[in-house]
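Notes from the 1:1 (GR / supervisor)

We went over the backlog. Supervisor wanted to see one worked example end to end before approving the batch request, so GR pasted a single chain during the call. The sequence is below; no edits were made to it. Supervisor asked that the structure be written out right there so they could see what the output format looks like.
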Amino acid sequence: MKIIIILIKNYFLQFTKYNELKYGNSTNRKRLLFQYFIIGIAVTVLLGYWTYTIRSILGEFNKADYVLGYVLIPLMLFVSVMTFLSSALKGTGILYLEDNLETYFSMPIKTYKIVISKLIVIYLYIEVISLILLLPPSIYYCMVKEGSMALYFLEFLSILILPVLPINIGVLFGLLLQKAGKRARIAKNKYSPILRIVFLFLCICMIILVSIKSEFAGQIVKQIQSELFKVSYNIIVNTSSKNILMFNLFISLLGLLSFYVINISYKKQYYLLRKNINSSIAWNINNLKKQNYLHALVKRERRRYFSIPVYVINTMLGIVAVAVYVIAAIVSRNNILNIFQQIGQYYKLGNSVGVLNVSVITILIALTNVCYSSISIEGKNHQIVKSYPIRGFDFFGAKILFHLSLTVPTILIANTVLVIVLKISTKEVLLGFLLPILFTYFLALLGSTVNIFFPDFQWKNVTYIVKQSFSAILSVFAGIGFVSCSIFILFKYFSSNLLDSFFVLTLVMFLVDIIFSICFFKNSDKFFKRI
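Structure output shown during the call:
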């Protein structure tokens, strides 16, 4: 147990950068204190908003059954899904992507202790969020139900045990995604054209089949919803201390079983790592052809990006969300139009399908930004990169161009399809192509700038850079906040002439991008020396 505590303590010292704050120079200390200050303000605002929201919601219910059925169970399902996704995206990286994996195995420490320490770290991170979300409605439920102290204790125990199973399943699912990504990269080298044709054919077939069977799919969804309501009703009727205890025991047993599988996979991952290190590398002579600096650096960015599955999974969210939105518009066009109509009526926008479509694509594509971590991800090799005979313009330009190579084609394809599906006017089509591209370019510049001033090259796990670094948090929140607030202001105060207002916003973003680009690339050599 002592070794597990030491390993957990070591991780949190690295995560909080306590030693750097205590022993670092004044510049690093000021930078870290500023980061903590910004994060503290953001956490305080979010906690205040959640407290106000949950208080308003719980005030509407005065019966225990209503609190359980309409608040507590939906929140528990939300926490379970959030835990699963977070474990798949972040937990897998913490567990399997450590740079010092060999150091762990060289120590006289049993494997299960290493695995337990890492899972506890993931658990503590998620449990804090679970307590914030579930503890207030759970206490209110026990108060309304007028239960005994045993019920209070079991409810609290349920909150503690609930994330265990989703964490373990999410970690295993994330590992499967990583392995699938590696196999896809291996297959791509030899069979890339064939795979692309097959993938495109399967996508077209899926869209056609789903479109034909949309009514049948709707019936299935309704049936699933009715079954979920039945389960919720049975839980409400049969809730007792005995049932809660059995639920906790069931989750615990499944958690132990999944832990056993994770422990085996962790050992296997180390063996595969040693095998890959000792294996020879097959060089492709085409990769050694002479190229200009910018092209070579873009190619370097692309290879590194797709060679790190956790990097791809965490930054592809916006592109995947746009794809899901396009498929939803194809499959259930009327439902999308009804939603747009309701939003239009709420904000008094009139006939604004095209503008709302542009807003959705712009906000969703803002979720993808690879630039906020593309500098930090250089790691300890950043000094080697600075020794290359390249300009800052080439170095930063390659990162921004690679970001645009991911987002711009997605925007063009999505808008082309939605023009046909939603029957958008010519002006709205032009707006749909221009505004998202201008915003995604702005976010690329913003992410690069934040990463220049707040880099972190001493990381030992790439998951930290992608998910937990200050530049990642600040860039994501600032980018999405800027896009959402800009669109909300137009909806709120310029609804009478919305289309023209969006074109004015497009012109403003065009000017902002030009000024930002001039200032950024003019100082690119200084930035390059700074990192």
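Supervisor's comment: Residues 184-218 have pLDDT under 50 and may be disordered.
Batch request approved.
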